């Protein structure tokens, strides 16, 4: 089991980076969708055609 | 439920299953390589992430050509989204390669042809994103970035062929010369499929976000005309 630490480090970094990126994208997308909904609500309230 | 949502959920499920199978194959199924020992298992992640990075930059190359030709923003959206995902995967290639190099070569980094051209590849696509963000006009930035995306792709075959063109410390093309035992080849192929699916998922997600950003921009412009 020599060098197992290197293998562990590789897998930890890969998954941390991939999940971090996926999480970042999900959060940003949720924020964007909220903004779209809020803008659409504003238009609806003021009776503006989109 | 929208068709695109069903497709994305299916892709997410497939990606998850393939990644779980890949982990099983890497840690339980595949035999340990004689010379390098357990650390050689990094190979099953290092090669697929490199493949995905190349694929991502090929999509940037195609999208850039189509954008300059047709002038349709959808091609620019696809190209820029793929560039971002490609940078994430190239970062992983550089990190995993460096960790693998330490126990085998005794150093984290060496200015070897394969490693140097890979670093240059990463820098080219970081420049691609910088060009876009610094452009004062959006369409101008997209045009400049498309040129970087086309010219920058020249480095991809250089990275791929570096091990045959120059004398390097990096291992030779073992995969295409039949140097892999069948269980190792199977594990590699499953890992390739898993990471390619993950790339498709991330690309779709990023394109969808860019479309949302475009929609917000359109609504805000409409608001500047219609609100108050």
In short:
The complex is a heterodimer of chains A (50) and B (228). Chain A is built from one helix and no strands. By secondary structure, chain A is mainly α.
Question: How would you characterize the largest beta sheet of chain B?
Answer: none
Q: Oligomer, anyone? A: heterodimer
User: What's the helix-strand series of chain A?
Assistant: H
Count of helix runs of chain A: 1
Largest interface: A-B, 30 and 33 residues
Q: Your description of this structure?
A:
The complex is a heterodimer of chains A (50) and B (228). Chain A contains 1 helix and no strands. Chain A has one helix at residues 4-46. Chain A is rod-shaped. Chain A is mainly alpha-helical and 50 residues long. Chain B is mainly α and 228 residues long. Chain B has one domain (11-211). Chain B is built from 7 helices and no strands. The longest helix of chain B has 45 residues, at 182-226. The interface between A and B is medium-sized, with 30 and 33 residues.
Write the layout of secondary structure elements.
The complex is a heterodimer of chains A (50) and B (228).
Chain A: H1 4-46
Chain B: H1 3-29, H2 43-70, H3 73-105, H4 113-134, H5 138-152, H6 155-165, H7 182-226
Helix pairs in contact in B: 1-7, 2-3, 2-5, 2-7, 3-4, 3-5, 3-7, 4-5, 4-6
Keywords, separated by commas or semicolons:
heterodimer; A: 50 residues; mainly alpha; B: 228 residues
